[in-house]
Amino acid sequence: MPVRRTPFRPALLMLGLGLLAGCEQAASTAGAAVGSAAGSAAAGAVAGSVAGPAGQVAGAAAGAGTTIAVAQLTRMSTAAAQGAWDTVAQEPVAACTGDADKPCAEAQELRARACRRQAAGASAEQRAGYLNCAVTAGQAALAAGGANTQAERNAWREELLAALYDRRAGTPRAGICPDNDLMRAEADTLLRDAPGNASGRFHGASARMIGVSVSCGADDQRCSDLAEAARMLTPPQSDARWTQTAEGVRTLQRVVVGCPGS
Where does the source fall among the domains of life (predicted)? Predict the structure, then answer.
């Protein structure tokens, strides 16, 4: 069935989010990391005593690596507590080891938040780099966060969604779909893990609305995507972005042939 297009451009929906509120307490983050380090070092020592010289070398290496990661996390947490987010954003974090590397995951998440904070006040050229950092570090944190609580991972995914939303807002229309598709997938994951989560609902609806607007998906899924977006935005929140997104959904439902109200 043919689809009537309108020049609808959801520019208002692409506005970046504001600065994040306050920083987390460095002491609690560092304390948790130190506890993790102690456990890893102890495990390495036990492995060494059981496996002989080779095990001792491997255990020592594992303990040393964890100690370095915890030292970095403590340093970054202290800088964040002092408001030195530029320092945190510039801190190079090595690739995490496995899917349950707690100190590394927390360092990646801290860097992701720092990069997004820096992006808010950066020039257009610098902003793109900071948002790339926020997305990449956020994904790395989630990939290595198996030892963190579900609540922590949910909060990290909310942060990743916000970074994707901001980055999508500065992406030319022709190149929006990759970030939009990723935002949709992450929002759906968040809603699976935390049903009714407001961030998951908003970003999931926004991704579906933008996906229809710029033709990211199949034409025969447009009406169902718009209907799902409308459901996600109900009940509404007291946020201008929710109102703008809901208006965009209703507009598209009127102009896409075959949708209720068209």
Answer: Bacteria
Tens of pLDDT, residues 89-141: 999 999 999 999 999 999 999 999 999 999 999 998 899 999 999 999 999 99
- The CA distance from 232 to 36, in Å, is 38
Instruction: Choose among 124, 150, 119: nearest CA to 137.
Output: 119
- 202-250 pLDDT tens trace: 999 999 999 999 999 999 999 999 999 999 999 999 999 999 999 999 9
Q: Is the pLDDT of residue 66 over 90?
A: no
pLDDT score recorded for residue 261: 65
In three-state form (DSSP H/G/I as H, E/B as E, the rest C), the secondary structure along the chain is CCCCCCCCCCHHHHCCCCCCCCCCCHHHHHHHHHHHHHHHHHHHHHHHHHHHHHHHHHHHHHHHHHHHHHHHHHHHHHHHHCCCHHHHHHCCCCCCCCCECHHHHHHHHHHHHHHHHHHHCCCHHHHHHHHHHHHHHHHHHHHCECCCCHHHHHHHHHHHHHHHHHHHHCCCHHHCHHHHHHHHHHHHHHHHHCCCCHHHHHHHHHHHHHHHHCCCCCHHHHHHHHHHHHHHCCCCCCCHHHHHHHHHHHHHHHHCCCCCCC
Q: How far is it, in rounded angstroms, from Cα 94 to Cα 73?
A: 12
| pTM to 2 decimal places | 0.76
